[in-house]
UniProtKB/TrEMBL annotation:
<keyword id="KW-0472">Membrane</keyword>
<feature type="transmembrane region" description="Helical">
    <location>
        <begin position="6"/>
        <end position="25"/>
    </location>
</feature>
<keyword id="KW-0812">Transmembrane</keyword>
<keyword id="KW-0378">Hydrolase</keyword>
<protein>
    <submittedName>
        <fullName>Class B sortase</fullName>
        <ecNumber>3.4.22.71</ecNumber>
    </submittedName>
</protein>
<dbReference type="InterPro" id="IPR009835">
    <property type="entry name" value="SrtB"/>
</dbReference>
<dbReference type="InterPro" id="IPR023365">
    <property type="entry name" value="Sortase_dom-sf"/>
</dbReference>
<dbReference type="Pfam" id="PF04203">
    <property type="entry name" value="Sortase"/>
</dbReference>
<keyword id="KW-1133">Transmembrane helix</keyword>
<dbReference type="GO" id="GO:0016787">
    <property type="term" value="F:hydrolase activity"/>
</dbReference>
<dbReference type="InterPro" id="IPR005754">
    <property type="entry name" value="Sortase"/>
</dbReference>
Amino acid sequence: MKRVSITILTMIIIGGVVFSGYKLYEYKEKAISEVEVMLFTPSVVESEINTKRIVNEEILANENTLKEKNSDYRMWIKMDETNINYPVLQGEDNDFYLYADFDGNYYYPGSIFIDYRNDIENDNNLWIFGHNMADGSMFADLVKLKDETYFNENPEIILVKDGIQYIYEIFAVNVVPADGAEIVLDFDNEDEMNRYMERVKEESIFYRDIKAEDIVEEEGISSLITMVTCSYEFDDARTLVSAALKPVE
């Protein structure tokens, strides 16, 4: 099992700073960058979605443009009926994109980013971080999953990578202290993944009963994702949302 000994960091100073209104002038008045006008909604050919993964050529072209603009671009993340619709980056550490935009300029809300230690092509569990902004942007909508009705009505997260759409089913939402959850990036076998998932579900507010043997493994994409943002139940609280890759039907 590939673990990270430092727990949920300090790295996520995401919860250490209260993103109050007086700071948001910088966000609201920021000039729109080229990437911000490239927001797209992943789509696939409906007649083929149930039989195989489809490369959407238009989305692939958009992604290639993003990669040309910033080689740290890894994928796109989207959650329907929320503000979550962003490029996902990966830096050389977990500090840079806390307060940098897609172009690498200072930007108070930061960017959505993957843990720099994740091997995206091979790890079983991608850790994805984002600020909980007071205006509802970035990963703020994740904390709504602590409401049971919202959790039941919003079960999916979409990742788009290399023009292909992957749908993940949210199976747990947790609130933990910043130093209270070990970051597990990979598993040696299915039993390890099952034990990890069971532990996550035991500590969760709500969960769906998904097991490791039900999760599809596909080359080039992670079986699990864990999304992290700050919350305010107590000092240095973090909301963790865990999701598992759904097979094509």
